[in-house]
C-alpha cells in the first residue's frame, strides 16, 4: 500500500543518510521517511561525488517517489539548501511540498564562503574540526583526511553554486531551526530566510551546537507532527493506508 505522507530528510555536508534512520520510529502510521544517500557518501562512498547542483536535484526528484503523496522536506546545514532547491523544483512542476523545514543554515546568498573553502582543503578541514563531531584522530590521519575531503569538497562546490544566484521566494509553509551555540550558522543567519518566506512559520532556537537536532528531540517531534498534517491533507483525495514509520535510505 502507498504511504499517506513522506518525510524527506537531506544530510549535512559530508554526512550520510543513516543519521536520520532513528527518526523513522517517531513517525505516525502511514508516514514514510526517505533519506537519500548522495553519491560518494555513506553507503555510496565508492561512487564519484556529484558537484553539480542541477544533477543533485534531478537525482533527488527521482528518489522521492510518487509526487501525489504529500511531502515534508527537511534539511540540516547543506541539506537545508538542497531541500530548498528541491522545493523550488517541485513547485515548478506543480507538485509543491506540504512544508519546507531548514536547520542550521541561512539562505543561499550567505553561503559564498563555500566557494573558497571547496578549493582550500586545510581551511575546509579546520571548519570541520570547529564543529566538533569528527574525532581528532580521524583528522590527524592522512588517509582519513583524504576520505573526508572527497565528499566534502564536492558538497562545498554545491553550496558555492547555490550561493551564485539570488534567493527565490519560498511559497510553501516554511519552518526554521537554529542552535544557540552553533559556531558556523548562528540563529541570526538562519533568521534571514524570513524575507524570502511569505508563509514563514517562525524560527525555533534550541540549545546545542551545530548538530543540535541530534541533541534535542524537538526537531523530529515537529517533523512527525508535520508528517501527520501532510497525511491528513493527503487523505482528502486518497484513503489508502500503509504500515507506520517505514524508512528508506541509500
Keywords:
single chain; 250 residues; alpha/beta; Rossmann fold; 7 strands
Which class best fits the helix and strand makeup?
alpha/beta
Q: What is the CATH topology?
A: Rossmann fold
Q: What's the CATH H-level homologous superfamily?
A: Alpha/Beta hydrolase fold, catalytic domain
Mind describing the biggest β-sheet?
A: 7 strands, parallel
- Global mean pLDDT: 90
- Report the uncertain regions: 237-245
- Rg calc: 17 Å
List how many beta strands DSSP finds. Answer: 7
Q: What strand line-up does the widest sheet have?
A: 6-5-4-3-1-2-7
Q: How many angstroms separate the termini?
A: 21 Å
Helix proportion:
25-40%
What's the number of domains? Answer: 1
* Residue fraction in strands: 15-25%
Amino acid at each position: 500500500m502507498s504511504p499517506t505522507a513522506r518525510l524527506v530528510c537531506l544530510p549535512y555536508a559530508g554526512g550520510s543518510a543513516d543519521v536520520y534512520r532513528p527518526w523513522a520510529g517517531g513517525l505516525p502510521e502511514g508516514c514514510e521517511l526517505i533519506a537519500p544517500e548522495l553519491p560518494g557518501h555513506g553507503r555510496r562512498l565508492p561512487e564519484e561525488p556529484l558537484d553539480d547542483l542541477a544533477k543533485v536535484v534531478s537525482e533527488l526528484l527521482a528518489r522521492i517517489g510518487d509526487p501525489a503523496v504529500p511531502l515534508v522536506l527537511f534539511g540540516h546545514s547543506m541539506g537545508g539548501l538542497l531541500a530548498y532547491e528541491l522545493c523550488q523544483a517541485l513547485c515548478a512542476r506543480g507538485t509543491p511540498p506540504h512544508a519546507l523545514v531548514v536547520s542550521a543554515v541561512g539562505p543561499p546568498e550567505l553561503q559564498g564562503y563555500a566557494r573558497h573553502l571547496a578549493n582550500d582543503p586545510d581551511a575546509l578541514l579546520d571548519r570541520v574540526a570547529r564543529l566538533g563531531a569528527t574525532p581528532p584522530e580521524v583528522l590527524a590521519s592522512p588517509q582519513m583526511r583524504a576520505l573526508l575531503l572527497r565528499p566534502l569538497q564536492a558538497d562545498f562546490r554545491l553550496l558555492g553554486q547555490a550561493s551564485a544566484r539570488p534567493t527565490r521566494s519560498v511559497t510553501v509553509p516554511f519552518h526554521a531551526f537554529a542552535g544557540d551555540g552553533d559556531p558556523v550558522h548562528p540563529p541570526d543567519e538562519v533568521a534571514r530566510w524570513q524575507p524570502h518566506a511569505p508563509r514563514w512559520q517562525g524560527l525555533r532556537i534550541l540549545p546545542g551546537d551545530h548538530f543540535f537536532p541530534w541533541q534535542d528531540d524537538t526537531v523530529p517531534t515537529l517533523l512527525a507532527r508535520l508528517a501527520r498534517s501532510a497525511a491528513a491533507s493527503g487523505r482528502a483525495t486518497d484513503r489508502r493506508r500503509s504500515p507506520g514509520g517505514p524508512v528508506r535510505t541509500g
